[in-house]
């Protein structure tokens, strides 16, 4: 797959990874459509892209608002007449300590990290079906198979993304020539994990390279960095007793909010 001339829609375009993906693709002669809530940041990225061989448009989009998602897809199609690739990175990471377990945090995480992507897929599919081609790449997370103490809201929403993508991948390709790619980053140094020290985290620029190269190579699952992939996939195989013996606080990570019980 060659990005030259391709129409690429990016959600979460103001984020650590989303912005770097946009800047990486701007060197490849793409037609970019950038979406997120913070318009000033979108404007700034759009300005940087205007000095490259790529084109770009942008518009505010809150993925909790289904109408915004519909408009984002319509605007991209109307401007560029097709949509070749969607790279959907909008997401939030919110701790939900067991001491103050809060269903609203889980609902909000599901709405942004999962349901937002569900509606992007719904509005992209008719366009890509008509084109008989397309790529939908969505960010889940590397630890998407087993729970992590304190991070249940995030993990559940990302596991849902992985599961949905698995269920669409084979049929989407066979019926409509649409590729569903699940992006599973380990720790990436972006505003999302600021304050949570994560050992072995890669830069957002490096993460963007993994993602763009992975799409170019036609990977179905893009997971990185290799050291963390080996560690997480090994832990996935631990029997429950062994898995549960891992220190809880160390899994939450430095910077996780301390909660005093009443
Ligand atoms: N960083 C990591 O270590 C890591 C690891 C695994 C997976 N991931 C996933 O990778 C993706 C990118 O993460 P990142 O690290 O680049 O995070 P980030 O820097 O915090 O960026 C998050 C992006 O999501 C957008 N966003 C948040 N809420 C939104 C909403 N309601 N509507 C529309 N956009 C919204 C933000 O834009 P606005 O605020 O402008 O709306 C921002 O562009 C996320 O899905 C994240 O869960 C990250």
Main sheet characteristics: 7 strands, parallel
CATH topology: Rossmann fold
Distinct bound molecules:
NADP nicotinamide-adenine-dinucleotide phosphate
> What would the average pLDDT be, to the nearest integer?
96
Q: Mind telling me the CATH superfamily name?
A: NAD(P)-binding Rossmann-like Domain
Spatial shape: globular
Helical stretch tally: 9
Can you tell me the CATH architecture? 3-Layer(aba) Sandwich
Poorly predicted segments: none
Query: Would you count the extended β strands for me?
Result: 9
SSE class? alpha/beta
Radius of gyration: 18 Å
Number of domains: 1
Which percent bin holds the helix content? 40-55%
N-to-C terminal Cα separation, in Å?
56 Å
CATH class: Alpha Beta
Assembly classification:
single chain
- The helix-strand sequence is EHEHEHEHEHEEEHEHHH
Spatial strand sequence of the major β-sheet: 3-2-1-4-5-6-9
Strand content: 15-25%
């Amino acid at each position: 797959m060659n990005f030259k001339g391709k129409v690429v829609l990016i959600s979460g375009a103001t984020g650590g990874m989303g912005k770097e993906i946009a800047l990486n693709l701007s060197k490849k002669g793409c037609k970019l459509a950038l979406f997120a809530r913070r318009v000033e940041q979108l404007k700034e990225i759009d300005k940087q892209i205007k000095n490259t061989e790529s084109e770009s448009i942008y518009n505010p989009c809150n993925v909790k608002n289904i109408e915004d998602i519909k408009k984002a897809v319509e605007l991209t199609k109307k401007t560029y007449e097709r949509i070749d690739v969607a790279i959907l990175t909008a997401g939030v990471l919110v701790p939900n300590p067991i001491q103050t377990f809060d269903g609203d945090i889980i609902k909000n995480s599901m709405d942004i990290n999962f349901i937002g992507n569900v509606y992007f897929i719904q509005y992209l599919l008719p366009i890509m079906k008509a084109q008989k081609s397309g790529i939908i790449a969505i960010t889940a997370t590397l630890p998407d198979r087993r729970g992590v103490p304190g991070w249940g809201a995030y993990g559940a929403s990302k596991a849902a993304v992985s599961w949905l993508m698995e269920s669409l991948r084979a049929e989407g390709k066979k019926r409509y020539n649409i590729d569903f790619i699940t992006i599973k980053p380990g720790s990436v140094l972006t505003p999302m994990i600021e304050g949570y020290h994560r050992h072995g985290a890669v830069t957002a620029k490096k993460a963007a390279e993994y993602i763009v190269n992975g799409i170019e190579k036609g990977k179905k699952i893009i997971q990185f960095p290799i050291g963390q992939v080996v560690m997480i996939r090994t832990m996935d195989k631990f029997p429950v007793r062994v898995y549960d013996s891992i220190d809880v606080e160390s899994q939450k990570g430095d910077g996780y909010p301390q909660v005093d019980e009443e």
